[in-house]
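QUALITY CONTROL LOG
STEP: pairwise intake check
CHECKER ROLE: data steward
CRITERIA: each record must contain a sequence immediately followed by its structure tokens, with no blank fields

ENTRY 1 OF 2
RESULT FIELD BELOW
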Amino acid sequence: MRSSVRTLRMLLPFLAGTTLYAQDTGTLRGRVTDAATREPVADARVAVEGSSIATTTRANGEYLFPAVPAGHHAVTARRVGYAMARQEVEVAAGDTATLDLALRAAAVALDVVVVTGAAAPTETRGACWATASRPWTAPP
């Protein structure tokens, strides 16, 4: 019995900290869609500004952040071929906030890439060339 009480006393600070942390966060979920077609946008990067919280949308355009600090946040969504979307959301501790984002298609200008190279001269030895006296035909 004494060892159980001692173990409980040692674990209590850690368990209390975990409970307090869980109470200071909420869940943020939503969906990223194309503004014109309302189709889901897969593989869009969704991030909470000012934090390291970020994810990529699934094939159905949905995203989920299970532990966002409670408070007011700005959320951005980005995807190649679309302009960035930014909206603000209030996340309450212990609750789930929903924020859907719509991305507008945008032309992306890319820089030209020029690849150049120089090959050193090489010597070819033992090359053998053969010619056939009749034209080649594909096998049946």
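ENTRY 2 OF 2
RESULT FIELD BELOW
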Amino acid sequence: MSTGSLEQWEKGYLAGVLDSDGALIIRRIQKSYSFNCYLQFVGTLEQMVKVRDMMGCNNKKIYEHGNRYSLMLMKQEDVVSILKRIYPYLTKKPEADLVFRMRSLHDRSNSFGRKGNKPSKETLNQRLAIFRTYKSYKSRSGGHITNWDEFEESLNEAYNKISHDNPEPSPQELINKLSSEDRSKVIKRLREGVETSSEIMNSSVPLEREEIVRA
């Protein structure tokens, strides 16, 4: 996609289409702690052709739904790029803010899933809090976030609840998650008085374990 520099009226046009029948979508990837964000533009065929031309994605498919048409922007960097450009003209600013926060949390740990470089538990809980806040607002009448104070309060409540439901595991809980071979190594080191259990679990010594984070 190549948006170049959008004219002011083009930014307003894209924001208007997205505000009216379009949607900002956050989807969970199966049952993981990874989430993707999408922009869905909905309107007439003429509107969708204009939207596609303005965003410079002429190869993007336009879908027909009876007398309505839609166009989905799925590439994550494109979603953020377009939202930043049209943000001042959007009514759905709180929803756009959720997308920005979610993508920021993913960008900080873009190698999620690679051994030895997983996001912190706090980051995972923040992602889940954003997703739950998004789902909560979407399930309400109208499905749009319009009250900034209520939005921030709901997001904080979701995060606090998740953090409370998923407290930091004790060193013993972490040890119990180890393979029998690694558990023996830890116990041996504890008996030798080399380190405390917390120091061992937070050390750079490669131990096969998984983050204790409940979905």
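INTAKE CHECK: passed for both entries
DESCRIPTIVE NOTE, ENTRY 2: The beta strands are 23-28, 35-43, 63-65, 68-73.
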